[in-house]
Amino acid sequence: MKNAKLAWLVVNHFVHAEKFETFYSMLIRTARELDINMKVKTNVELLVEPEAPLRGPRPDFVLFWDKDLSLCSHLERQGLHVFNSSHAIEVCDSKNLTALELAGHGIPQPRTILAPKTFRPDQYPSLDFLPEVGRRLGFPLVVKESFGSFGFQVHLAGDQESLEKIVREIGTRPMQFQEFVRSEWNGQPADLRLHVVGGKVVASVLRTAKEGDFRANVTNGGKMLPWKATPEQKKLAVRACKILRTDFAGVDLLFGPNGPVLCEVNTNAHFKNLYDAIGIDVGRFIMSHLLKKCGLTN
């Protein structure tokens, strides 16, 4: 790798789960195959000192697989090519900001209400706004924390009592309420994950939920199966990524009554399970796209 391109893979210093380490190794291996010397850097190694220049060799590009927005913005201000951008990560990391950013663009989404802000640090002093939420959206309805991954912060409220219980448990963390879209495939709760890189869908899978769960997420015990995305599904996923200004993302779609419905967009979507299921290495598409975008290809 004498003439290899230098890249940084920026990750969070405080995350040490095996699934993350395995995923990082997969990215590094793919980079090596494309003659990219990829070095792992944590957000502790790259402590942000706003007025200080970067030390050492500058990478040709940065694959930012973290959500430390201050660091991401700092690297951009240092003139580095950073992907995804701090703007894309910020908007997609917050489900509330995603809904606001996509509003008015004709993107089919579940009807959504954003929880009002309170300055109490722990609990809402009053839940008197929840009856109106239930009236507008009907039951069951979905409660999502604005920040969360792998479906862990997504809840289903069957009635007003359970809605109030869920909100009390979440406290004052940002959240949203959505109409429940009964997304099913062959009578089983399911959704789609489409990976979009450089404005093209490069892989798609069907995800089914484990028995008794409405969330079609593999980490929660669901299954992943090959899926050939329709032109309508591809168009929706690509358009959402264009609006949100992502270079690459995992786009989750629901089976709506009148066609696909956007669920969410993930700038840091893992694809190890997808590779195991259908044999497509999304990382190779990402690396190739970044090399081309940075003018590093021959």
Structure description:
The chain is an alpha+beta fold. It has nine helices and 14 strands. The strands form three sheets. Strands 9, 10, 11, 12, 13 and 14 form a six-stranded antiparallel beta sheet that branches. A four-stranded parallel beta sheet has the order 2-1-3-4. Strand 6 (141-145) and strand 7 form a beta hairpin. Helix 3 (86-93) crosses helix 4. The chain is globular. The protein starts with a strand and ends in a 5-residue tail after the last helix. The model has no long low-confidence stretch (mean pLDDT 93).
The SSE string, one letter per element, is EHEEHEHHEHEEHEEEEEHEEHH
- State the total count of DSSP E strands: 14
Strand content: 25-35%
The radius of gyration computed from the alpha-carbon positions, rounded to a whole number of angstroms, is 20 Å
Q: Helix tally?
A: 9
- Helix fraction? 25-40%
Helix vs. strand class = alpha+beta
End-to-end span in angstroms?
Answer: 16 Å
Largest sheet geometry: 6 strands, antiparallel
Q: What best-fitting shape do the alpha-carbon axes yield?
A: globular
Provide the residue-averaged pLDDT.
93
- Catalogue the unreliable spans: none
